Amino acid sequence: MKNTFGNNVSVTLFGESHGEAVGAVIDGLAAGIEVNTDFIASQLNLRRPVGSISTPRVEKDNFKILSGVFEGKTTGTPICIVIPNENTHSSDYDETRFKMRPSHADFTANVKYNGFEDYRGGGHFSGRVTAALVAVGAIAISALREKGIIIGTHISKIADISDRNFENIEADIKALNDMQFAVLDSQKGEDMQKKINEVRAEGDSVGGVLETAVCCIPAGVGEPWFDSVESMLSHALFSIPAVKGVEFGAGFSLAQMTGSVANDPFEFVEGKIVTKSNNNGGINGGITNGMPIIFRTAIKPTPTIAKEQETVDIRDNSNTVLAAKGRHDPCIVHRARVVVDSVAAITLCDLLSAKFGTDWMAK
Amino acid sequence: MKNTFGNNVSVTLFGESHGEAVGAVIDGLAAGIEVNTDFIASQLNLRRPVGSISTPRVEKDNFKILSGVFEGKTTGTPICIVIPNENTHSSDYDETRFKMRPSHADFTANVKYNGFEDYRGGGHFSGRVTAALVAVGAIAISALREKGIIIGTHISKIADISDRNFENIEADIKALNDMQFAVLDSQKGEDMQKKINEVRAEGDSVGGVLETAVCCIPAGVGEPWFDSVESMLSHALFSIPAVKGVEFGAGFSLAQMTGSVANDPFEFVEGKIVTKSNNNGGINGGITNGMPIIFRTAIKPTPTIAKEQETVDIRDNSNTVLAAKGRHDPCIVHRARVVVDSVAAITLCDLLSAKFGTDWMAK
Amino acid sequence: MKNTFGNNVSVTLFGESHGEAVGAVIDGLAAGIEVNTDFIASQLNLRRPVGSISTPRVEKDNFKILSGVFEGKTTGTPICIVIPNENTHSSDYDETRFKMRPSHADFTANVKYNGFEDYRGGGHFSGRVTAALVAVGAIAISALREKGIIIGTHISKIADISDRNFENIEADIKALNDMQFAVLDSQKGEDMQKKINEVRAEGDSVGGVLETAVCCIPAGVGEPWFDSVESMLSHALFSIPAVKGVEFGAGFSLAQMTGSVANDPFEFVEGKIVTKSNNNGGINGGITNGMPIIFRTAIKPTPTIAKEQETVDIRDNSNTVLAAKGRHDPCIVHRARVVVDSVAAITLCDLLSAKFGTDWMAK
Amino acid sequence: MKNTFGNNVSVTLFGESHGEAVGAVIDGLAAGIEVNTDFIASQLNLRRPVGSISTPRVEKDNFKILSGVFEGKTTGTPICIVIPNENTHSSDYDETRFKMRPSHADFTANVKYNGFEDYRGGGHFSGRVTAALVAVGAIAISALREKGIIIGTHISKIADISDRNFENIEADIKALNDMQFAVLDSQKGEDMQKKINEVRAEGDSVGGVLETAVCCIPAGVGEPWFDSVESMLSHALFSIPAVKGVEFGAGFSLAQMTGSVANDPFEFVEGKIVTKSNNNGGINGGITNGMPIIFRTAIKPTPTIAKEQETVDIRDNSNTVLAAKGRHDPCIVHRARVVVDSVAAITLCDLLSAKFGTDWMAK
To answer: Is the pTM value of this prediction over 0.95?
Structure first.
């Protein structure tokens, strides 16, 4: 259903980069979940630009909760959070109204909306809309934490610099969640930031891979067909701008293994059935098996770059060139991290509510 | 919605591997689309086991159309196709009722369904259910062809043997669609089959990667958030058993590129806006840009293998070993190919109907 | 979503009156619910034609469960039930292919499906499709009974003959559920049947009103906006052919009352909050209040009648007359009773599963 | 999906009576539809209280469009409209926090949301939330008008005073749409207002019936099962607070007719197939037949009244009495009129978009 996702817990997104505001409605969360506005603010802060490795457009992100929260707790009715747009330079986009930025949504938006789209700053396609996702996602993350379910994402790769893998997942997640540039190996983090500064200096951009772990989710969540955990998570993840790949567990490398290597043997340990390895990323047959959910998300390089690129001018269908003005991110991987956590949390709240009922999250 | 997927065109799956039948209902297809039962049969045939590289369980797949087709054409009402199960050896599964096959859905099904699941042959989680998807998918594929939209998938990789990439996409698709073992380079196909036979001889299995191209789809299809083309396709693809990764265009390798390399420059050629490269796989901002849609699907090795594996017996929660009996596929990549085509076709019919209306497909 | 209804428990309908079969898929029911095939058969029997007051087309209704049931219990996966069509006289409909039966769906089907509809016997619009709804609905009814929730419907009115109102609701429901012609006052039932025979003798038909009670449903089920209990039930009820009105509690007569008369005062009785009257039919603000849900469903007279009627011939757009041949019901109110129970049960299973989780029904 | 309704065009509602704001997101409307803010304001004005026959709480209803509109036209992306709450007297509700107003949602909200609901002024259940529906509905009404489809509702009945029926539907609709108290017979309108003043003087309230006509909608819209026009409209209508009955065409009175009287004969007139009567309210088999859609909506008397009523105090589960303070409507029928138009317009935009595609409304 277009800009709405989820069945039992759902989220609806609205807003344009240079319009009044961006916002989101999250519906279906249990009544009685504590809403910590400081935590929402800190999550928004993790998504905000960081020094030279991000866009100079810095928004205050003064979010406003319009509904669904009363006396500091969720009421069980839809929560709408709105974030006004303030620091907009709309004139930066006069040129791109007609000169389509390669690999951005300018052209497809123009075709889809017959020229009526708000073209300024990518309009409704802008990464800015993810601020609203992060705000409502923060409530979902809090709700999961109350049930002992924690989510963490690190920057697994920028260009060809790789962070170390998850080791002690619970400890790793806890360490990651307050970092502005979330890596498990701080040296690799510095190398990555240096790399980002290099491409920025060249008027270019760079992509990367995020790796996410979800810990302590019960077994038996998800559906065999269509609403498998992988299906639902990937559906949500692929709607984040710039995501071009999603894999679970060992993912694409599983494809090269034999079954005897790839399979995760079960064993009975301390009263619980676990698996010895976790190549399936905690999901068998689309259903959680109780092991950590592990997935990786490929983020393409920001398409808007200062370097001159070939493109078309749709006013006269002429071939032309474009060197983007405006304020752009040389890399959005580190900023996307908290967006990934947010959509994962919302999706898992949805699947958990389907299994355990609306009120489960607040019990 | 659990075993149902799609908004304007939707599919509902039912059936268990060793029950009466597997089947599917496809709803929302326009009235007046020709239904070619020979084509349905040939698609089912492409999914069936092939000689020594597949399971010895060979089903006749005598499908029956129960509704929605009248005088050889779709009526516009739901089409139910049923495929009876015939060649079942249910006793093969007496052991796995309690000894959970590693990385199969035995354990998660047991937890999710509290022990009431039909455990025989994987029950509702069985790849056999995809036969029904292929049957209804064949009608979607036919409908798209009538509009000039064609889909083709090749086995891009088995273990570490890689097929060549798509070159002339339209010609490549046409060549692929009648092959039982669909590769673009026949030598590589022979190598792959040899590899499959080797792992089979060792009581093992092997995975691979499928690559799909969709040609001649109009620009402007899909939604920016949540129902992006990538979101919808990945949602459908990840519900196919054994799929653990999905990537679009250059996918995960995009993550390592700079923007100036990754971006697909627009150019105006023969009255049409096209892109010079197609690293984004025909999708910008979640919306088709008119270039071929390209995606790759990672298929893990079949989890059921003859080799002995460690696991648990849930009768007494003891650690034990299991060497699977029954008839199993050493590789399902080549059989999954037509399943991928089917879910892609159904998903695209859904998105196209949203944009152009119910009747568009039949015009 | 077209021929599918429900979120957590959903039903998908397929089939045409004179095609291979009619059928339904019910998905989302908990695993472990007992499936009593005798009860399904008895429910189908209650829907079947009765002597002279119904159509002479009598179907054996030999239903077949294709999936989702194993060792006598639901597996938690989709249950498909198919009922083959046997006693079809398709030639009866050669004339109505072009002469549109007034107030039937012949004309609207022809416009909607561009002439590709299966016109025989009303095709997919036929009341025959409700047999499949009754079959899957029987499982929902059983599941609710296990939780102490019971549903019963009586023929409140045929023409201007009225049955008595519900008094002792639990006892009344129990008495109704085995009756072929379900009335609370048997004398009124005889008068109604006499009336039906009279209109039949005149080549005419007659409508009526059904009144339904649902007993012992917990308070707190439903949603304030859009998925209110009234919204969901009416959505399901209005898709039953011939239904033209739905009202809850005192319904339309509430509209003429003052608040002081219409309001249902709360009182605390034996440890429970109840209402002294039940003019709101057990629903306040779209949410159950724990009192019996009461609603009435208006059923129009069967549109197909032997009497000559004016209509058009769409071959040449001429005005013409039509005296329907074929086998028709002079009244369907008594047969619709069990269909109403079925859709109500499915809808309530859906709403209860949303609140209490998937497994609640089987606990 | 809880507080969201619709498939191709959908609406999501949020907000509480005494919170920050009420609001709605409408998604799926075509790009390029003109958005007339004066018309939105005038529709909101029609919903506002009128002199002595309404509540003294008068809100300015200063709506703000946050997204989806650019240069005066829809962009095709979600439109969020927010209406801040200003004139709130929250202390009026201190008593009803624990003393449940009979037939209001206080009790069911308390059960459903476990005491975490915003109880002030009915919270999310308040009729105030319909202001947001009216604001987004105004855009849907405008869009339909551009296609020649017009909607109008009159107060068919207050207590036992009846307005005349629709005669010349197009002219009647045009006359109604600017009236604050919408009746076809002005004398009856005065009688009704006198009646409302009488019940107000007695500290009581009164209900009524609204009758709606939709003119010039194409034939062939809707679905046979579940998403029938009646199902979809009733789903939307029954989510409006106080609605307890919905009937189409002759509705409940159809139930007492014979088929030969009830049926609407087709005839060919001036190149078009029409019906001589319209007892089916423009819908056959759930699909529009091209005649005006006619339906009636029963509105119960406002449950909050000044008269003393019996109820319970949930603090100690004692029986008590309540004479409501606060500002209440003695009748909401006249105010609900424009809400009915709004949900009807949104529902029809949804069904039309399903049939004709997203862009149809803007062509």
So the answer is: yes
